[in-house]
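FAQ: What does a ligand-bound record look like?

Like this one, built around zinc ion:
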Amino acid sequence: MKDCEYRQIPPGAAAAAPGPGTAASPPPPPAVPPRPRRPRRKWEVFPGRNRFFCGGRLMLARHSGVFVLTLGLILVTSGLFFAFDCPFLATHLTLAIPIIAAVLFFFVISCLLQTSFRDPGILPRATPSEAADLEKRIDSMGTSTYRPPARTMEVVINKYVVKLKYCYTCKMFRPPRTSHCSVCDNCVERFDHHCPWVGNCVGKRNYRFFYAFILSLSFLTAFIFACVVTHLTLRSQRDGFLATLKMTPASVLELVICFFSVWSILGLSGFHTYLVASNLTTNEDIKGSWSNKRGSEFANPYSHKSILTNCCAVLCGPFHPSLIDRRGFIQPDNGSPSSPKSEIPSFGAKTDTSMPGSHRGRWRSGFPCPEAAVPW
Ligand SMILES: [Zn+2]
Ligand SMILES: [Zn+2]
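The answer part, i.e. the structure of the complex:
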């Protein structure tokens, strides 16, 4: 009962309220200056569905359970191979087998981690002032009082007309080849697909690591499969087939895992080799964006018309810096004290850029402003 009574006292009145049985109120405590608020980094208010680690240095999609499964399968299969097959093969065949396997293993793991924990090429959402500015420009272009259901803009790329769609979540026209990932809730440049196996989107900034990952993983899986078959064959010649299976349950497990995974990994590697050679993304291929069925005018405008040049452009192009500046500090907002939501323009409403948008110009290059954390 006492607890209930205490809970009903508002926190501000707790110090001033006289205690039960006391005749006079105690002297007020000395005024404590408010503690300065800890400066927050931009990743702490990131509006997409991502998780951040190591102070924002690493990022992953929020639902990343399948990524743990991928990592576990690779670690378990390779660990069993190094522990139970490599000693026999190194002794009876050559020391090159564990060395090649180790090199492949470390390459696979490093490519997987680079794919999973990198920013895939996320575009920062428009700030309220940028969104309001764009809204005003769209409004001024419209001739009808009714807003069209889909907003599009046309640009010419390599003499081909490409339609840009408006993203209602990020409040901007998506640049060419950009798509909004429904899992991560971000617009990603050169969006390929969202891969639950690596726990991240695959886009402009991590595609080459993803391609190197699946290619090297297919080599590693095929190599382990071939080595385990060799190991079991050599042993069964000496001890008999059934006795070998009983003696080496770990090798049998590796064989089963490799057998069931190698086909899909090889198929995926082949498919992405075709995409790289054509300078296509999975998204474009599935949607048939540049399909030739409607004539040559719909050919891929990004293709360099040469397999070698396409491969170089996709895999050896320059590294692009991350645009979301997730380790940057959020600057204090010195603008109007009005509610942030009141500054967010709504579709259909006339926007007023004479509102405090001007002081937000500093957010244009950075991301996100505090208001951007509001789900809109
Ligand atoms: Zn978007
Ligand atoms: Zn995604």
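Follow-up question: can I read anything off the structure? Yes, for example: Confidence is low (pLDDT under 50) at residues 1-23, 333-376.
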